[in-house]
Amino acid sequence: MRVLNSKKLLYVIIVVAAVFTVALGIGFAISRADKIPLNDDGITLSATDNECAEPTPPITTPTIHAEQPTSEVTTILLQGIENTYAHKEQFPQAVTIRESDIFVLYSLSDGTELCWYVDNERQYENGAAYSCAYKKQGGSWIWFLAENSNYAQEHYNYGFGEYENLFGHSGFFIIAARGTTYVAHDYYYFDTNGDLKLLIGSTSTDIIGDFNDDGENELIWFRTIGDTVMYYYRNGESIYEVDVLYELSAYCELPDMSVFAVDWEESAQSVLSNELRIYLLRTIATYPQHEMDKTFFGTASFTVDGVAVEWITSEEA
Question: What's the average model confidence in pLDDT over 34-60?
């Protein structure tokens, strides 16, 4: 093994030290270059320039608090008045009916028969009346109602149907023309003694449903021209009625020539969801055009105490 002399060894040490020093300087320069800021032209900024430069703000997502449009809403509770015709006792009479005079025959689920017939014993100015009678199983015909046939000569405007759980009763209803523009329904039931009673009467088109969520059905009927809405509900043993649009007019001062109304085309569907849309109708043209300005007024919902109307006073729907 060869041994370096002292001169050669010293020379090697000097070279190694020089290389190490150069490498250390290059590394330091590179690390400083990463930290020296540049301006937009790529020129190195001095320490003084850097201290005066505005710091770059952090990028953040702003929170937007959008103000929702508001409406002034006044809730009006329309309470009903007792319907004195409810549970009205009937005074039926035994009657003999010729089969040829019967033009509607209907059988109830319990076997009771109902009929509409031409009643020549009861006369109106246009001729014979149209009457209703019932016959229980094994019994005879019992008359209970007569109608003026002047409004509808066509027999298809008369008929019967059955209902369940209306104000706590089940029974049948009659269909009868009572005007030139509407067909009415009257609801009857037999009490525990077997006597026939009128539960409630309605005009025009009606809907039965549990609108106030009390577990039994209520009744609402409309005039098809939209200016009448009647709501019937039970409180205790009494049946109450609310003439919704009429009662509403007592709380709200209407513009001249304005009336409340409902949109007949959407009324049935909206009632089933317990929300009836009410409008103000104002005449803007005279006869024969009858043009109307229709403005949304509010919504009505049906409760155990009456009808709650949410009156929108500052915003149209």
Answer: 46
Judge residue 188's burial from the number of C-beta atoms within 10 Å of its C-beta, 0-12 exposed, 13-18 middle, 19 or more buried: buried
- Residue 131 makes CB contacts below 8 A (sequence gap 6+) with 116, 117, 119, 122, 143, 145, 146, 147
Are 166 and 187 a contacting pair, CB within 8 Å?
yes
Residue with tokens 């509770």: 77
How far is the C-alpha of 98 from the C-alpha of 78, rounded, in Å? 49
Phi-psi region of 127 (alpha: psi -120 to 50; beta: other; left: phi over 0): left
Determine phi and psi for 211, rounding to 5 degrees.
-80, -25
β-strands 169-177, 159-166 pairing: antiparallel
Whose CA is closest to 182, among 154, 203, 161? 203
Q: In what order do the strands lie in the sheet containing 276-283?
A: 73-78, 306-312, 292-303, 276-283, 258-262
Are 86 and 238 contacting, i.e. CB atoms less than 8 angstroms apart?
yes
CB of 182 closer than 8 Å to CB of 247: no
Q: Using the 8-state DSSP alphabet, how is residue 136 labeled?
A: -
Mean pLDDT of the chain: 76
Q: What letter does residue 192 receive in the DSSP assignment?
A: T
pLDDT at residue number 316: 44
Between 252 and 171, the more confident residue is 171
Pinpoint the alpha helices (H) of 68-107. Answer: none
Closest CA to 112 of 133, 91, 131: 133
The structure tokens 């007592």 sit at: 250
Give the global pTM: 0.69
Q: How far apart are CA 246 and CA 196, in angstroms?
A: 32
Two tokens at 213? 């969520």
Q: Which two tokens stand for residue 256?
A: 């001249």
Query: How far from chain centre, in Å, is Cα 240?
Result: 22
Tokens standing for residue 73: 């809403």
